[in-house]
Design a protein that fits this description.
two-stranded parallel ribbon, about 10% strand, little secondary structure
C-alpha cells in the first residue's frame, strides 16, 4: 500500500507497493509521504514535491524535469539515471542517495545535502550549489560539475 498524505490533510491510498511508470506530472504533492516505494520510470515533471518525504524510494530512470523539490527528503533514494533538470531543489536532502548517471543540470541545488551520496557519472553542470554539502559524496571522472566548481573543502571523494 502506497500512502500519499497531502498538504490539505487528505490521504490517498494506492493499492500495491509500487507506482512504477506512473504519470504524476504537475501534481501537487507538497509534503506528501511516499517512502520505500517503487516509482522507477515514473514521470513527475513539474510536480510540486516541496517538503515531501520520499526517502528510500526507487526512482530509477524517473523524470523530475521542472519539479519543485525544495526541502524534499530523498535520503537513501535511488535516482540512478533519473532526469532532474530545471528543478528548484533548494535545501533538499539527498544523503546516501544514488544519483549515478543522473542529469541534475540547470537546477538550483543551493543548501542541499548530498552527504555520502553516489554522484558517479552525474551531470551537475549549470547549477546553483551555494552552501550545498558534499561530505563523503563520491564522484568519478565522468561526473560533470559546472566550470569553475571549487572542490577544495567540499568533502567530495573521487573514485578512481
Amino acid at each position: 500500500m502506497v500512502v500519499i498524505k497531502k498538504q490539505d490533510g487528505t490521504t490517498v491510498y494506492i493499492d500495491g507497493d509500487n507506482l512504477k511508470s506512473a504519470c504524476l506530472d504537475g501534481l501537487n504533492l507538497h509534503r506528501a509521504l511516499i517512502e520505500d516505494a517503487d516509482m522507477s520510470k515514473s514521470s513527475l515533471q513539474g510536480a510540486d514535491l516541496r517538503g515531501a518525504s520520499l526517502s528510500g524510494t526507487n526512482f530509477r530512470q524517473a523524470s523530475f524535469v521542472g519539479a519543485k523539490l525544495m526541502t524534499a527528503l530523498m535520503m537513501e533514494a535511488d535516482l540512478t539515471e533519473s532526469t532532474l533538470t530545471n528543478c528548484n531543489g533548494q535545501f533538499a536532502q539527498f544523503d546516501r542517495a544514488s544519483l549515478v548517471n543522473a542529469d541534475m543540470s540547470n537546477s538550483d541545488w543551493s543548501g542541499c545535502c548530498f552527504d555520502a551520496a553516489d554522484l558517479r557519472g552525474a551531470n551537475i553542470s549549470n547549477c546553483n550549489l551555494v552552501d550545498a554539502s558534499f561530505e563523503r559524496a563520491v564522484y568519478d571522472k565522468s561526473t560533470i560539475f559546472s566550470e569553475g566548481f571549487v572542490f577544495e573543502g567540499t568533502g567530495l571523494v573521487r573514485d578512481g
